[in-house]
Amino acid sequence: MEQFPYRREPLRLTVHGTVTRDGATIEDVSFAGADDAPVSAYLVLPGVQGDGAAVMYMHMLGGGMDRSQFLDEAVELAGAGIVSVHVQGQFPWDEAPHDLEHDSRLITQEVVNLRHGLDALDDRLAHSIRATAFVGHDYGAMYGALLASVDARISAAVLVAGHPHFSSWFVKYWELGDTAGPAYLVGMAELDPVRYLASGRAMPLLLQFGSDDEFVSESERQEFVLAALPPKETQIYEGDHHLNAEATVDRTRWLLSRLAGR
After folding, report:
1. pLDDT digits over 6-63, tens only?
2. How far apart are CA 59 and CA 31, in angstroms?
3. What are the CA-CA distances from residue 108 to residues 1, 37, 68, 240 (Å)?
4. Predicted confidence band at 79 (pLDDT cuts at 50, 70, 90)?
5. What is the pLDDT of residues 105-150, one digit of tens each?
6. CA-CA distance, 89 to 59, in Å (whole number)?
7. What pTM does this model have?
8. CA spacing 20 to 30 A to 154: which of 16, 113, 120, 137?
9. Element at 187 (helix H, strand E)
10. Mean of the pLDDT values across residues 252-261?
11. 100 near 182, Cβ under 8 Å?
12. Nearest Cα to 78, choosing from 105, 103, 55, 100?
């Protein structure tokens, strides 16, 4: 049985508004995701001709971050003709972890939403996408590990400050108490990002971490890195969970080298 299965149907993409920034057009859109529920996203379209390169971005949780987190980076890439889609996360952004059935179902739905986001990108660009990279931070990185392992449209990924286990953050920050017993931990382990990193498809990976990350310990960082299949690069930056400006520069350069041959 296919993992994180979805059925591709004619996409119902709605454009709610557009703005221009430094020659790029940013479309505020929505599309039907898992169970036909609406998913918000941004599409960033270059003002210059590209060659079919694209990036999917997924933001972190907390700090006021949402689908706009990576827009500045995406506008810079648009100058090289690279398009991008920025999907708004729903779980655990909008709904708190609760129990095994609930949490595993919503993680699955989140990955399906991302797969539909790739459909939106493909359809909007008239099926001219040549290669798509993924960039995710925090929970975005964890979902990226799952998505990249099962969807062959992702050809490279930058995973920023990802944690090896969903259950660790769920239990710690939502204080699940008795619901997080042995059965919960065993069941949630089936969806561990490190499980998918270790058993998924090999592709170029850039793994970025902060040296003083209060949410990802050194041992958790090592577990994440060791699980990832080569080819992979690991960079550790001075800073906390948000990393620093150097990480942004390196991430953009890495994407350009793989998508635009620069």
Report:
1. 888 777 899 999 999 999 999 999 999 998 899 999 999 999 888 899 999 999 999 8
2. 18
3. 14, 14, 23, 29
4. very high
5. 999 999 999 999 999 988 887 778 899 999 999 999 999 999 999 9
6. 7
7. 0.96
8. 16
9. helix 182-189
10. 91
11. no
12. 55
Distance CA 195, CA 188 (A): 11
Using DSSP bridges, classify how beta strands 24-32 and 14-21 pair: parallel, antiparallel or unpaired. Answer: antiparallel
Is residue 8 exposed (0-12), middle (13-18) or buried (19+ Cβ within 10 Å)? Answer: exposed
Task: Quote the CA–CA distance of 116 and 77 in Å, as a whole number.
Answer: 22
The backbone region for 134, taken as left when phi is positive above 0, alpha when psi lies in -120 to 50, beta otherwise, is beta
CA distance 217 to 197: 18
Indicate the helix (H) or strand (E) that contains 143.
helix 139-150
pLDDT digits (tens, 9 = 90+) for 86-100: 999 999 999 999 999
| Sign of the CA dihedral running 231, 237, 243, 246 | negative
